[in-house]
Write a structure and sequence with these properties.
CATH topology: paralog of FGE (formylglycine-generating enzyme)
CATH architecture: Alpha-Beta Complex
Strand order of the largest sheet: 3-6-14-9
CATH superfamily: paralog of FGE (formylglycine-generating enzyme)
Low-confidence stretches: 1-33, 322-326
Number of strands: 14
Strand content: 15-25%
């Protein structure tokens, strides 16, 4: 991977991003006060979709620590242009929607799934857990987000959805995901910089979670009403009309995992290798995320075969002329 050109500890791209941020909101983004377009579905079992506008934004956080592995790429902020509208799931894919895929396709989702083991007091790979019985929440409903889904499982789901509808359903790229999560905001989070202001918007490891789960790190100092996974859409939407972009369950995206943004596409394309990759990017954090991970630009990754009860998915859709006119 090429080495970044740096000046005084900052990459040239990050300096440009900082300069653009200093000018105020990035041009072409939908105004935060604008009314989101009406959602639509392509079939009864399909996720509800919301049209995202074209625009330009700063991907990453120029002030993030470049010396920490968790934020190295994020610190190499780049200006990204989303050249045309696309659609993104209004909420995370639900257990009801995923069950329709399983029942129709016969897809075999195998164990194990990484889940919190109360007896051991830690996460472990549990062969008794899967998307039907994830462990969290204790009584999973149809309107909870599906979890215990690997990246490979997520790809199989969107391929089934594309075949069923004849539409170009897929996973979002990392750039599309962050653009949609920010929803016009240059702040650390869609609602502002302070994590404690976000319990109306995001289901995180908060004071209610700490009463049930002692994870050994500081909770977000507010209460969102859910100690672990919440039903989709239970909290407030961001300015683009999307729910749970931060928190609840983390979400697979299309991109290969990398610890640098140097050389990444400056448009909506996913950054993938010609020969494929074994690790993929996960975005958004989850119900067990501390404040420092509950940010629009924070990124994580996992093996494409891994499943966890705090990781699910959200789908994207390339818009045809009919959908764009809605």
């Amino acid at each position: 991977m090429p080495t970044s050109v740096r000046s005084g500890g900052w990459s040239v791209g990050s300096i440009a991003a900082v300069a653009l941020l200093a000018l105020g909101p990035v041009p072409l983004l939908r105004a935060a006060a604008a009314e989101p377009p009406a959602p639509f579905r392509d079939c009864a079992e399909c996720p509800e979709m919301v049209r995202m506008p074209a625009g330009t934004f700063v991907m990453g956080t120029p002030t993030a620590d470049p010396h920490l592995a968790a934020t190295r790429a994020e610190s190499q902020a780049v200006i990204v242009s989303i050249g045309k509208p696309f659609a993104l799931g209004k909420v995370e894919v639900t257990r009801r929607e995923y069950r329709a895929f399983i029942n129709d396709s016969g897809y075999d989702v195998r164990a194990p799934c990484r889940s919190w083991d109360e007896a051991l007091g830690r996460f472990s790979d549990d062969r008794a857990r899967g998307w039907e019985n994830p462990g969290r929440p204790r009584e999973a409903r149809d309107d909870h987000p599906v979890a215990c889904v690997s990246w490979n499982d997520a790809i199989s789901y969107v391929q089934w959805l594309a075949h069923k509808t004849g539409k170009a359903y897929r996973l979002p790229s990392e750039a599309e995901w962050e653009y949609a999560a920010r929803a016009g905001s240059n702040a650390l989070r869609p609602w502002g910089d302070a994590a404690t202001d976000g319990c109306d918007f995001a289901n995180l490891y908060d004071l209610a979670s700490r009463e049930v789960y002692a994870f050994g790190f500081e909770p977000v100092r507010c209460r969102d009403g859910y100690p672990d996974v919440a039903p989709v859409g239970a909290l407030r939407a961001n300015a683009f009309g999307l729910y749970d972009m931060i928190g609840n369950v983390a979400e697979w995206v299309q991109d290969c995992a990398t610890d640098s943004y140097v050389g990444r596409p400056r448009d909506a394309r996913a950054w993938v290798w010609g020969g494929g990759c074994t690790r993929r990017v996960v975005r958004g954090g989850s119900w067990l995320s501390p404040a420092e991970r509950a940010r629009s630009a924070f990124r994580d990754s996992g093996e494409a075969t891994e499943r966890a009860d705090y990781v699910g998915l959200r789908v994207a859709l390339d818009l045809d002329g009919r959908a764009e006119a809605r």
